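Interim report to the steering committee. The following record documents the input for Cysteine hydrolase (191 residues).
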Amino acid sequence: MSHPLPALIVVDVQRAFDEWEAAGKRRNNPDAVARIVDLLAAFRASGAPIFHIRHEGTKPNSTFRAECSGYAVKDEAREQAGEPVIVKRVNSAFIGTDLEARLRASDIAALVICGATTNHCVETTTRMAGNLGFDTRLVRDATWTFDRTGPDGDMHSAEDIHAMTLSNLNGEFARIVTTTEVIASLIAMRQ
C-alpha cells in the first residue's frame, strides 16, 4: 500500500540565489520562500515526509560549491531532525542520488515539488518524477527563476520563463497547484 500522504521535495533553497540577487540578477515571485516555509510547516504538522535537495556545484566558478557560502541552505528552509538532505550534482534530484530508492522504499506515490529555479532543477526534477510514474504536483507560487538571455540575444523575463515552464509541465508531467491548494488537501487528508 502506498504512503497515504505526499512527500514534499524542496529543491535547492540555497544562499547562492541570494548572492545572485545581490549581484544584480532579477527574479520573479519574491514571496516564493515564504510559501515554501508555509509548505514545510503544513507537511510537518501533517507528519508527511519531507526531502531536502541541495545542489553541490562541480564547476570551478559555481557559487554552489560545497566550500562556498552559497552552498548553505537558506535559514527559513533549514531541515529539521529526521528530514533527509540529498545532495545532487546535476539538475535532476533523481540522477546520482538515492531519492527514487528512498521514495519507493517508503511506498510514496505522490510528490509535491517546490524550490529553485523553476526552469532548471525544479523543472528537471518534475519531469523525471512524472516520467518515473509519481503523481506529481508543482507548486507555482513556491518556486522562482531569473531573467535570462536566449541564444539569439533576446532577453526573457523571469515571469515569462516561469509561466512557460509551468505551461510545459502542466498535464503531462505534473499538476500545477498553489500552496493554498496543497495545504487544503493535506488538511482534508487528516480529517
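The first helix runs from residue 16 to 22. The committee is asked to note this result when reviewing the revised timeline.
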